[in-house]
Amino acid sequence: MLTAFACWINANSSEAFGTTFGFDIHHRYSDTVKQFLNLDGLPEKGTVDYYTVMAHRDQLLNGRRLAASTKPVLTFYSFVGNQTYYISNLAYLHYSFLSVGTPSLEFFVALDTGSDLFWLPCDCTTCARNFYRISGKKMELEIYSPSNSTTSKPLPCNSPKCGPTRGCSTMYNACSYEISYGATSSTGILVDDVLHLGTNVTPQDIVDVPVTFGCGQNLTGNFLDVAGINGVFGLGMDSISVPSVLANKGLVANSFSLCFGSGSIGRIEFGDKGSPLQKKTPFNLQQSKPTYNITVTQIAVDNNVTDLVFAANFDSAVSYSYFTDPAYSFIVNNFNSRITEKPYHFPGETRLNYCYDLGENEEYVIPNLTLKMKGGSHFNVTAPTIAFRRADGKNAYCLGIIKTKINNVIGHNFMEGYRLVFDREDMVLGWKESDCFDAISSKTLAPNNGNSSRSRPPPPPPPSGAARSSSMTSGVVAVILAIFFHHFIILSS
User: Quick one: pLDDT at residue 132?
Assistant: First the structure.
């Protein structure tokens, strides 16, 4: 460490810009500093004790600097790094590759801020073994087996992590779990194994972290063929979630970010505290089970504004967004009155009530939808609609909002175009418009000023009942050619 000791004016070194200022720099153990500050007990310069004390104090000060600095950011260790993928025919959610166990196996899991537990299909007979991409090509899916991983062991029933809400499997002498959303469920035992993470640089440095997750031996409903078919990665606030484990081990800051780009590519980063330029709103923590719950204080559709105060959960594993009245009616009525296309009804679809015919067109103009959050920051919804390919080959789009009588949920579709920071240290949600490659290319999306058109090619028709009505469904696909094509664009731009 150096100490600034004396300030001086160098009038003789005046340049075109006038007098210059400078200062003498002295080490804190220098004779000048010792004499001026009258410090007793410092070792004599040149002795072994002098250099030992200097090294020791420098190490302490450096440790303080490191502790005060930003902790590293981690992400999944895989051949695609921290990229996530929007999969239209797996409930319109984002998925990511991750690797687990020894030897490691890769899985393609749905990212879920609405649940806590991370689980994988495990020694199951009915779970999906492959997945057909939109192109028609088949992708093989791994199945986790504790007996095939040398680092796997069952979580004992008397473990503090088992908790009073868990059961105990006498067959496996292990803590059991059950996740159920109506007819969709995942049940099995909890196991400890290694999750392979990496730094958010290329090439990645591997960071192996012991975690507890669900070994899903029995899957039913949508987990078989609609979503979550290769596992679900819970990102909630409970101590068993991976973000909590990473923070408790001191590996990263107690925060993570999800970026959902306007295309099919996104990013996930553990320990990301976001940007000083991001907007934010506090989480509501008056609940018995804390979630990423925030307060909306105002809704605007173009220039029509209403003051409505209500709470809503940010849930990345809900395909659409759910609102109770009067918020639902205000949004859909004002939206519908500004649309010029003819109404369209998908055969068999009963949840999306505001759909519109595009014919051969793939672009359309929509009104601007903005939510004002507690604290005064505005959340401009960049993608309130979802485009579809009709059975007759023509196009249509729907307002991705569903009426509910229970909880308001801001789903995945409202999160598109943002880097969302779930900061559990400061207990705030942060957001900033992003193309998910800001750190690489410094590009950001222009704000939606209302007259924005959506030109993404429409995906297939929505699967009936695909969105969880306050819960989740999940699944798998990684279009390898699309990945290569994406990297080609980045490298050639």
Answer: 83
